[in-house]
């Protein structure tokens, strides 16, 4: 059996991302509006800024831009999470990063399943932010036990999906026909079901414990709760949402506007009020649930641990000023003021080791390989023989994620749980280790440096 009868995991991921996008457009038409808005803005930015267009082209980001999305789901048990890990592996997506949201009052911890090599990222960087409910954080013991019983009963994967995961693991891949079947079967896990599996009374009890608990426990599966396109100008996207009368979140999460974008800036529109049907036709009017929303993001430079520490420090400073968190009219001003301490030109960011860069020979460098020799990268950049472009941040930010969760659960900022991050428990549930994102960025940067000398 030769491996080339198999469809590459990159192609399966692209098929899946496309299928999810089509499904979500039908489920949440406003998502389609966001995608169109982002496409318009990105075209305009690229037309106005040919240098950026060239940079994206050089770094294999131009082609992926129109396809680029992340989604998010929340699961209830270790078994669900572990099986998801196997399902995503068929598509070349691996758990990267550990996020503890309990400190922000959300009883979950999370990872992102995503591709991790330069070629896989260039093919399609589709990522899914995946949260596992921490039932142990529900105080009411009876409710906790009932939730566990309800979750233990449900089956979130179709038989076909499970069989095809096993087949892919056993044989090392899926052929064209099975890959197509796999995508259709996998899609079922992420579909929205408006029928609750629990009584209205149970739903309300769960909701009182935390709206997120109701969202995870009351339904047949972990519906995809948003899909996020990537814009090149989030301030334009935010203005565009407001201009179209979309109920956008007040604050853009993440760093302030900058000349050199870093990490991730995100905005979302509020969750839809959906009608939920309860068994026996109960609560015909009572049943609305906020689960699904739309989000737009702008991605920038991936930061090194040193850069990230500075980011975290300045963000905390902006949020703590006046004790107002990220609420309050003056938050954008506080944020901008704090971030004046973060260098905003690429030469400084690079020389101070704050971000990761991809190095490549320029035309001059290619024409004169002898001049490249053993010179250090900085000297080559200074001589115009090598370009250094920002490596894009492919991950998430816990403070931003908490803000997104909060605004879409319809909640006020809530008290933090007295829990601690528990990466070991998460990895145990998942059945594998989550990878450290810094190691991946470091490797991408190193590979680019090595490519200069070949
Ligand atoms: C996930 C929220 C996190 C992001 O972009 O930070 C997220 C959720 O609400 O399930 O998607
Ligand atoms: Ni998101």
Secondary structure layout plus pairing:
Elements: H1 9-27, H2 29-48, H3 50-58, H4 62-65, E1 69-75, H5 78-90, E2 94-100, E3 108-114, H6 118-123, E4 127-133, H7 141-153, H8 159-171, H9 176-189, H10 200-209, H11 211-217, E5 226-229, H12 234-243, E6 264-269, E7 273-275, E8 288-290, E9 294-299, H13 305-320, H14 331-338, H15 346-351, E10 357-361, H16 363-367, H17 369-372, H18 377-382, E11 386-390, H19 398-408, H20 423-430, H21 437-451
Parallel strand pairs: 1-4
Antiparallel strand pairs: 1-5, 2-3, 3-4, 6-9, 7-8, 10-11
Helix pairs in contact: 1-2, 1-9, 2-3, 2-12, 5-8, 5-20, 8-9, 10-11, 13-14
This protein binds 2-oxoadipic acid and nickel (II) ion.
Largest sheet, described in full? 5 strands, mixed
How many domain regions?
1
- As laid out across the biggest beta sheet, the strand order is 2-3-4-1-5
Strand content: 5-15%
* Through-space gap between termini: 35 Å
Tally of contiguous helical segments: 21
User: What does the radius of gyration come to?
Assistant: 23 Å
CATH architecture classification name: Roll
Name of the CATH homologous superfamily: Uncharacterised protein PF07063, DUF1338
CATH topology: 2,3-Dihydroxybiphenyl 1,2-Dioxygenase, domain 1
- Fraction of residues in helix: 40-55%
CATH class: Alpha Beta
- Overall mean pLDDT stands at 92
**Ligands, deduplicated:** 2-oxoadipic acid, nickel (II) ion
- Strand-pairing-aware structural class: alpha+beta
Poorly predicted spans: none
Q: What is the overall shape?
A: globular
Number of strands: 11
What do you see in this structure?
The chain has helices at about 10-25, 30-50, 50-60, 60-65, 80-90, 120-125, 140-155, 160-170, 175-190, 200-210, 210-215, 235-245, 305-320, 330-340, 345-350, 365, 370, 375-380, 400-410, 425-430, 435-450, and strands spanning about 70-75, 95-100, 110-115, 125-135, 225-230, 265-270, 275, 290, 295-300, 355-360, 385-390. By secondary structure, the protein is an alpha+beta fold. The strands form four sheets. It has a five-stranded mixed sheet with strand order 2-3-4-1-5. Strand 2 (about 95-100) and strand 3 form a beta hairpin. Helix 1 crosses helix 2 (about 30-50), helix 1 (about 10-25) packs across helix 9 and helix 8 (about 160-170) crosses helix 9 (about 175-190). The structure holds 2-oxoadipic acid and nickel (II) ion. 2-oxoadipic acid binds near residues 72 and 400. 2-oxoadipic acid (OOG) binds next to strand 1, strand 4 and helix 19.
């Amino acid at each position: 059996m030769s491996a080339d009868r198999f469809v590459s995991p990159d192609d399966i991921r692209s098929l899946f991302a496309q299928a999810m996008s089509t499904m979500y457009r039908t489920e949440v038409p406003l998502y389609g509006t966001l995608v169109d808005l982002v496409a318009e803005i990105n075209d305009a930015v690229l037309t106005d800024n040919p240098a950026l267009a060239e940079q994206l082209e050089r770094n294999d980001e131009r082609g992926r831009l129109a396809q680029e999305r992340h989604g998010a789901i929340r699961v209830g048990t270790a078994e669900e999470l572990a099986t998801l890990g196997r399902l995503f592996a068929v598509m070349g997506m691996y758990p990267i990063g550990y996020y503890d949201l309990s400190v922000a009052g959300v009883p979950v911890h999370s990872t992102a399943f995503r591709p991790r090599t330069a070629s896989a990222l260039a093919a399609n960087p589709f990522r899914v932010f995946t949260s596992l409910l921490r039932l142990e954080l529900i105080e009411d013991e009876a409710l906790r036990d009932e939730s566990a019983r309800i979750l233990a009963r449900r089956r979130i994967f179709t038989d076909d999906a499970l069989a095809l995961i096993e087949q892919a693991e056993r044989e090392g891949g899926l052929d064209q026909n099975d890959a197509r079947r796999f995508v259709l079967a996998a899609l079922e896990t992420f579909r929205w079901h408006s029928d609750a599996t629990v009584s209205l009374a149970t739903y309300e009890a769960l909701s009182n414990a935390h709206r997120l608990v109701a969202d995870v426990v009351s339904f047949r599966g972990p519906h995809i709760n948003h899909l996020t396109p990537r814009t090149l100008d989030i301030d334009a996207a935010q203005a565009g949402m407001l201009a179209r009368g979309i109920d956008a979140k007040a604050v853009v999460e993440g760093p302030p506007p900058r000349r050199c974008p870093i990490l991730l800036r995100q905005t979302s529109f509020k969750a839809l009020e959906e009608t939920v049907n309860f068994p026996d036709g109960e609560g015909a009017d009572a049943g609305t649930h906020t689960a699904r929303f739309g989000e737009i993001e702008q991605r920038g430079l991936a930061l090194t641990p040193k850069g990230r520490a500075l980011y975290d420090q300045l963000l905390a400073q902006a949020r703590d000023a006046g004790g107002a968190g990220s609420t309050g009219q003056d938050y954008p001003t506080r944020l901008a003021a704090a971030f004046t301490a973060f260098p905003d030109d690429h030469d400084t960011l690079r020389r101070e080791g704050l971000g990761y860069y991809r190095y490549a020979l320029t035309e001059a460098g290619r024409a004169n390989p002898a001049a490249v020799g053993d010179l250090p990268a900085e000297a080559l950049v200074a001589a115009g023989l090598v370009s250094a472009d920002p490596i894009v941040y492919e991950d998430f930010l816990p403070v931003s994620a908490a803000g997104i969760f909060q605004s879409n659960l319809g909640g006020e900022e809530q008290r933090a749980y007295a829990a601690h991050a528990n990466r070991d428990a998460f990895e145990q549930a998942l059945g594998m280790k989550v990878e450290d994102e810094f190691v991946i960025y470091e490797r991408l940067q190193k590979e680019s440096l090595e490519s200069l000398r070949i």
